[in-house]
From TrEMBL:
Residues 1-28 form the signal peptide. GO terms for molecular function: ferroxidase activity. It catalyses: 4 Cu(+) + O2 + 4 H(+) = 4 Cu(2+) + 2 H2O. Its EC number is 1.16.3.4. Keywords: Metal-binding, Oxidoreductase, Signal. It holds the Pfam family Cu-oxidase_3. Monomer. Coiled coil: none annotated. Residues 53-166, 191-297, 392-517 form the Plastocyanin-like domain. The keyword Signal applies. This is Multicopper oxidase CueO. It comes from the Bacteria. It comes from Kosakonia calanthes.
Length: 517
């Protein structure tokens, strides 16, 4: 047993014994313990092995087919070191093609794992890269074009933890699974047989696939026993289409210390933390009062996502502080963030996001018919008068009147074409990208591969303090958002980077483009 494992298990045993006698049965029987993904580091040859596989997972009363990396659901957390090369060997044991995309990790296009990086059923792929960016919580997931939403919904997602020297000096909570805890939140829905019920149809192409069951690390409303003091939560919104707004049940504050691309300059105190699909934030929460509380997600104004039980505050994780003291601290300062460069004279690109009006109309009607007016988040009139448009759901799902919803979401008027990159960015040069959702009242979490950028404005406003650090996803919602991007690696035509909406059903139906560096 390695020393760190001995310390970890000793701490867990100590934590359990620190519970008062009367509360131990209550704690154990009340709800499942939060599953903690194993921490996977490279071996002596700098290798990490990932097996993409199918299996079965228990979700409450359901036992469903699910997919995972090195297991039946989700995957390990890969711990990488800045400046240290790693070789990842990926074997695909699924009955269909997949890819593995390194979301937020700055790597060359050749190993980025976009839709061109196909691993055939039964096949394998080996990639090598060296992380050079600062410490960050990133993640990996499939990027198979047209099937990303389905493969993520089946369970494929894992964390990437990049470490550097500065992070080690800060004394943030760092006991994995004890006071440094991953919190991967996703929603699912199940059919009458208890299987994951995924559909890519007119409704989901318009508003996304969403479920009625929230999972945290694959479990329904689990609990975590934490030492008393500062608790670090690495939050990932791993949903296909649902935005989340995190808070605490007793209104204790969250202190944001890192965003997608790593540490902020200083902690930012918030009472609630909205998160788009694909975003990560690291927060510290003070448990020193010893009182149990919930991490909850608050209602959001997003079409389809206001259906019960999400029209009210919804718990995702129970935190039960223990008697033993935590060792991590909340530092006053975290990392130095470079000042923004002069923005004059930079190459500027405008990306206009849009949805085919037919999909807009058909999707809104399908949503309204299935879930009622409450699902429209107060926006039904904005999408036109659908009263006269009565269509059979079966016909719509198969593309009525020859309508092809698989290419109905677009950037600059074009649906995704894997063979034709849209432009070439210059390596090492700053560019100013304007991403516009004007005229389109859908939420678009816009993600750019191969870089961590700075948000200049978000929906026409300056970014909130906790969103002003390094990011790879920006909020575009009926207005214009501007980001400052720079790419440090090559991405040739055959391995172009992607820029796309991270509402996965929008991505799968055309709202994506390729570009070279």
């Amino acid at each position: 047993m390695q020393r760190r494992d001995f310390l970890k298990y000793s701490a867990i045993l100590g934590a359990a014994s620190a519970l008062p006698m009367w509360s131990r049965p209550l704690f154990a029987a009340g709800r499942p313990a939060l599953p903690i993904p194993p921490l996977l580091t490279a071996d002596a040859q700098n290798r990490i092995q990932l097996i993409v596989q199918a299996g079965e997972t228990q979700f409450g009363n359901h036992t469903a087919t699910s997919w995972g990396y090195n297991g039946t659901l989700l995957g390990p957390a890969l711990q990488l070191r800045q400046g240290r090369q790693v070789n990842v060997e990926i074997r695909n044991m699924l009955a269909e093609e997949t890819t593995v995309h390194w979301h937020g990790v700055e790597v060359p296009g050749e190993v980025d794992g976009g839709p061109q990086g196909i691993i055939k059923a039964g096949g394998s792929r080996s990639i090598t890269f060296t992380p050079t960016q600062q410490a960050a919580t990133c993640w990996f997931h499939p990027h198979q074009h047209g099937k990303t939403g389905h493969q993520v919904a089946m369970g494929l997602a894992g964390l990437v933890l990049i470490e550097d020297d500065n992070l080690r000096k800060l004394r943030l909570p760092q006991q994995w699974g004890i006071d440094d805890v991953p919190v991967i939140v996703q929603d699912k829905k199940f059919n009458a047989q208890g299987q994951i019920d995924y559909q890519l149809d007119v409704m989901s192409a318009a508003v996304g696939w969403f479920g009625d069951t929230l999972l945290t690390n694959g479990a329904i409303y689990p609990q975590h026993a934490a030492p008393r003091g500062w608790l670090r939560l690495r939050l990932l919104n791993g949903c296909n289409a649902r935005s989340l707004n995190f808070s605490t049940s007793d209104k204790r504050p969250l202190y944001v210390v890192a965003s997608d691309g790593g540490l902020l300059s200083e902690p930012v105190k918030v009472s609630e933390l909205p998160m788009l699909m694909g975003e990560r934030f690291e927060v510290l929460v003070d448990t020193s009062d010893g009182k149990a509380f919930d991490i909850v997600t608050l209602p959001v104004q997003q079409m389809g996502m206001t259906v019960a039980p999400f029209d009210k505050s919804h718990p995702v994780l129970r935190i039960q502080p223990l008697r033993i003291a935590a060792s991590g601290i909340l530092p006053d300062s975290l990392a130095s963030l470079p000042a923004l460069p002069n923005l004059q004279g930079l190459t500027q690109r405008t990306l206009q996001l849009s949805m085919d009006p037919m999909l807009d109309m058909m999707g809104m009607q399908a949503l309204q018919q299935k879930y009622g007016e409450g699902a429209m988040a107060g926006m039904s009139m904005h999408h036109g008068d659908m009263g006269d448009m009565q269509m059979d759901h079966g016909k719509m799902n198969h593309g009525s009147h020859g309508f092809d919803f698989h290419n109905a979401n677009r950037i600059n008027g074009k649906a995704f074409d894997m063979m034709t990159p849209q432009f070439a960015a210059q390596k090492g040069q700053y560019e100013r990208w304007v991403i516009s959702g004007e005229g389109d009242m859908m939420l678009h979490p816009f993600h750019i591969h191969g870089t961590q950028f700075r948000i200049l404005s978000e929906n026409g406003k300056p970014p909130a303090a906790h969103r002003a650090g390094w990011k790879d996803t920006v909020n575009v919602y009926g207005a214009r958002s501007e980001v400052l991007v720079r790419f440090q690696y090559d991405a040739p035509k055959e391995h172009a980077y992607m820029a796309h909406c991270h509402l996965l059903e929008h991505e799968d139906t055309g709202m994506m483009l390729g570009f070279t560096v």
